[in-house]
Write a structure and sequence with these properties.
By secondary structure, the chain is of the alpha+beta class. The protein has helices at about 15-20, 50-60, 80-105, 110-120, 135-145, 170-180, 195-210, 340-355, 435-445, 450-460, 475-505; strands spanning about 150-155, 160, 235, 245, 255-260, 265-270, 275-280, 285, 295-300, 310-320, 380-385, 390-395, 400, 405-410, 415-425, 430-435. Among the domains are: about 1-65, no CATH class; about 195-240 and about 395-505; about 250-375, POLO box domain (Arylsulfatase, C-terminal domain, 2-Layer Sandwich).
Length: about 500
């Protein structure tokens, strides 16, 4: 749209006239643009002209737009509170529907995602090796030398084909000519998925099953379409007295942390009493729960062949504190290497700050591992996102600390989900609850509450509608449904992280 702006201010169009221009009333006007639009082309569903105009008016109303007109505005009957709630619910449902359709469209296994991935790849013309002298004639000669006359196998009493009378070098030449004729090199073996990629795979598969509203149990499968089972060592009593098998919660996770990354690094305390520091140079120092030893973890660049890329490997050094070092009577320079003196002092500083002000020693979520003197867990990587802070632990657990004080943990490559709800507390303390990913999909099903209510009214059990699962409380169902929304955000963050790591590699 191009309209010359008059020099006289009185002749310029008003804001109301600009908003009434036909340019704003043609085309598709969605109510919500997905957050992924910042780094890739969003998926906008097709809308009718009437729906677009309605969405445009709703957006103006949400932005508190007041049209400036000369004549008296038309009298619009006032809406009741019930009508306004219905409009808000309709807008929210439309937004959720658009998000589900968009996530299904950009899923790695979808045709649109494959098309976008292929479109982003540059077109490279592979060089074709020149065939040897007399290529076609030589190939025909080699094929003619193959004997097709059947021979009799005296030992087994059957007819067999005679082996080709071609040397090993000739076989290699034939394979080379076959590749030339085919016009493509042999396909390389697929690369095994990393732990983060497996998390994205399992979360995407579970969310796709949840969005389909399938009442059948969700069965997780790996990248090779093989069924994956999760150990269920914990047995508790359910709501109706039935035994409920559950997975084990992560043994190590962050309880408190202190961010001084601008100068020193990130200090943290794990639930087993371990205190560590992730320094700015990506090294880590972890103090044992009884403060009698510490581990120093650093990266080592491995030397490889010139053609192969260099790789980094984590190395761990264990240091035992001598008598007098724990209480400070023995100076660090007397027993520590020179390069570790300043880092150990920072470790002591973070220990005093966290354990005195932040760490809850009387919390039921904390304990002290008396026998742990080496091999302590530590924070491998951490970064901030829009809605949470992400911690990747050395044990493989990925922890999301959301800004609403909800903590979510992924273990067993994402097949086990644990969460701490800051609102739901028992006797004033937070509670750690754990589910399998398949279990969460069944609990958060939209028809789960109605099925359990109908089963209770008829005297049956919920197993008739949701086999292999159990009775649940309404509070648990509400919390799990909130976690499913957070898992969608977690999947998007992990997908972005893995894509960025592959592009850097």
């Amino acid at each position: 749209m191009y309209v010359p702006l008059p020099l006289t201010p009185a002749e310029r169009p008003s804001l109301a006239e600009i908003m009434d221009h036909p340019w704003f009333r043609v085309g598709t006007v969605p109510m919500h643009v997905p957050s992924d639009a910042v780094y890739q082309q969003p998926y906008i569903p097709t809308l009718t002209h009437t729906e677009s105009l309605r969405n445009f008016e709703q957006l103006k109303k949400a932005a508190d737009w007041q049209s400036i007109v000369e004549e008296e505005p038309p009298q619009v009957p006032a809406k009741s509170t019930r009508d306004e709630l219905r409009v808000l619910e309709a807008v929210e449902e439309n937004r959720d529907r658009i998000d589900r359709e968009f996530q299904q469209a950009i899923h790695p296994g979808s045709p649109i995602s494959t098309l976008l991935k292929v479109g982003r790849q540059p077109l490279v013309k592979a060089p074709v090796p020149a065939p040897p002298a007399g290529g076609a004639a030589a190939l025909s000669q080699k094929l003619g030398q193959l004997s097709l006359q059947p021979t009799h196998d005296k030992e087994n009493g059957r007819v067999a084909r005679a082996a080709p009378a071609v040397h090993v070098a000739d076989d290699a030449h034939l394979r080379q000519m076959t590749q030339v004729v085919a016009g493509a090199p042999p396909a390389a073996a697929p690369r095994p998925l990393t732990s983060m990629e497996l998390m994205v795979h399992y979360l995407s598969d579970a969310l796709r099953h949840f969005d389909a509203e399938d009442e059948s149990p969700h069965v997780p499968r790996d990248a090779d379409n093989e069924v994956v089972t999760v150990p269920l060592p914990v047995v508790v009593e359910g709501e109706e007295g039935e035994l409920r098998a559950k997975p084990a919660a992560p043994r190590q996770f962050l309880i408190s942390w202190l961010d001084h990354s601008e100068k020193y690094g990130l200090g943290y305390a794990l639930c087993n009493g371990t205190v560590g520091v992730h320094f700015r140079d990506s090294t880590s120092m972890v103090l044992a729960p009884r403060r009698q030893a510490f581990d120093y973890v650093y990266n080592v660049r491995l030397r490889t062949a010139d053609a192969a890329p260099r790789t980094d490997q984590l190395r761990r050094e264990n240091h035992v504190l001598p008598p007098g070092a724990a209480d400070g009577t023995l100076a660090e320079a007397d027993w520590l290497p020179r390069e570790l003196v300043s880092k150990f002092k920072l470790l002591r500083f973070f220990e005093s700050e966290i354990m005195e002000r932040l760490y809850g020693a009387d919390s039921p979520l904390t304990y002290v591992d008396e026998e742990l003197t080496s091999g302590m867990g530590f924070v491998h990587k951490w970064y901030r996102c829009k809605q949470a802070i992400v911690f990747r632990l050395s044990s493989g657990t990925v922890q999301f600390n959301f800004y609403d004080h909800t903590k979510l943990f992924l273990s067993c490559d994402g097949l086990v989900v644990s969460a701490i709800d800051a609102v739901d507390k028992t006797d004033g303390v937070p509670v750690l609850r754990t589910w399998t990913l398949a279990e969460m999909v069944a609990i958060a099903h939209p028809r789960r509450s109605a099925a359990e209510a109908a089963a209770a009214a008829s005297g049956a059990t919920a197993r008739e509608h949701f086999p292999y699962y159990f009775h649940t409380k309404p509070s648990e169902r509400r919390f799990v449904r909130q976690l499913m929304k957070k898992l969608r955000y977690v999947r998007d963050v992990l997908m972005t992280t893995t894509s960025a790591s592959h592009s850097q590699a």
